[in-house]
Design goal:
Layout: H1 5-14, E1 18-22, H2 26-35, E2 39-42, H3 46-49, H4 61-72, E3 79-83, H5 93-106, E4 111-113, H6 119-131, E5 135-140, H7 146-149, H8 158-174, E6 178-182, H9 186-195, E7 200-203, E8 211-214, H10 216-219, H11 236-257
Parallel strand pairs: 1-2, 1-8, 2-3, 3-4, 4-5, 5-6, 6-7, 7-8
Helix pairs in contact: 2-4, 4-5, 5-6
Bound molecules: 3-methyl-2-oxobutanoic acid.
Binding site for Mg(2+): 44, 83, 115
Active site: 182
Region (Disordered): 249-271
Length: 271
């Protein structure tokens, strides 16, 4: 049986650190499942990791559902959560419920994640939770707002930290079951971990969080541009490239020493 949102909330109470990784297809889902992590996120970062876009903005709801179905075929134990993509929840509550509902009806996802805490977003979260759709919040660096906020560290001033703190409390109040805090000062994440009852899952938010999440491709060194807060555990892109080049070289070399039969040779029976 997969873990539930209650399991993750109990982990916080027990002081057990929550581990979370992203997946974008059946293959990466199998790696993430085998890692033994607690939460698998079909993150909209797949727009960049898997679809080659420069930001997360272009990925469609249709594509996210398609990728969540693929990941869902290989995920067994972790709680499976999908990102609601840009403009799937910002154009009215009814459309947001319909979009989020697709993940619960058409994929094995048990929850959705969305970014920000503007008043309209709060209304959406409230409605989703009352409809029975668990929601994970996401504050700090919110990539869907990259054209307003950039890719840099967020909430660096005391006043911005107080604003973010208030938003985090509001998200908990609206019923979010957990909160992702991305690229914010460690002191802010550490304080919120203590103040909130729901798990605070950090990414580039320092070590003192209830859990940590990373984009799996960044952790494995598969992406060309690494965020500053991730040290890849291996250089997978380099290793894969070297091995594939080696295979091509071997095939060409073998072909040269063992040429194909010349025209006019008798046919080989059975070929
Ligand atoms: O889309 C994603 O991969 C995310 C992580 C950065 C948490 O939201």
């Amino acid at each position: 049986m997969p873990l539930t949102i209650r399991d993750l909330q109990n982990y916080k109470r027990q002081g057990r650190i929550i581990t979370a990784l992203t997946a974008w297809d059946a293959l990466s889902g199998a790696w993430v499942d085998a890692s033994g992590c607690d939460l698998a996120l079909v993150g909209d970062s797949l727009a960049m990791v898997s679809l080659g876009h420069p930001t997360t903005l272009p990925v469609s709801l249709e594509a996210m559902v398609h990728h969540a179905q693929a990941v869902g075929r290989t995920i067994q134990r972790p709680l499976l959560v999908a990102d609601l993509p840009f403009l799937s929840y910002q154009c009215g509550t009814e459309r947001a419920v319909a979009a989020a509902g697709r993940f619960l009806k058409e994929t094995p996802c048990q929850a959705v994640k969305l970014e920000g805490a503007e008043p309209e977003t709060m209304a959406v979260i409230n409605r989703l939770v009352r409809t029975g759709i668990p929601v994970m919040g996401h504050l700090g660096l919110t990539p869907q707002s990259v054209h307003c906020l950039g890719w840099g560290r967020q909430a660096c001033s005391v006043s911005d930290q107080e604003r973010l703190r208030q938003k985090a409390l509001d998200l908990q109040q609206q019923g979010c079951f957990a909160l992702v805090l991305e690229h914010v000062p460690a002191v802010l994440a550490s304080g919120l971990r203590r103040e909130l009852e729901i798990p605070v899952i950090g990414i580039g938010a320092g070590p003192d969080c209830d859990g940590q999440i990373l984009v799996t491709a960044d952790l494995l060194g598969l992406t060309p541009s690494q965020p500053p807060f991730v040290k890849p555990r291996l250089q997978a892109a380099e290793i894969f490239k070297r091995e594939l080049q080696g295979w091509c070289h071997e095939q060409r070399h073998q072909g040269q020493t063992d040429p194909p039969p010349k025209e006019g040779n008798p046919p080989i029976p059975g070929c």
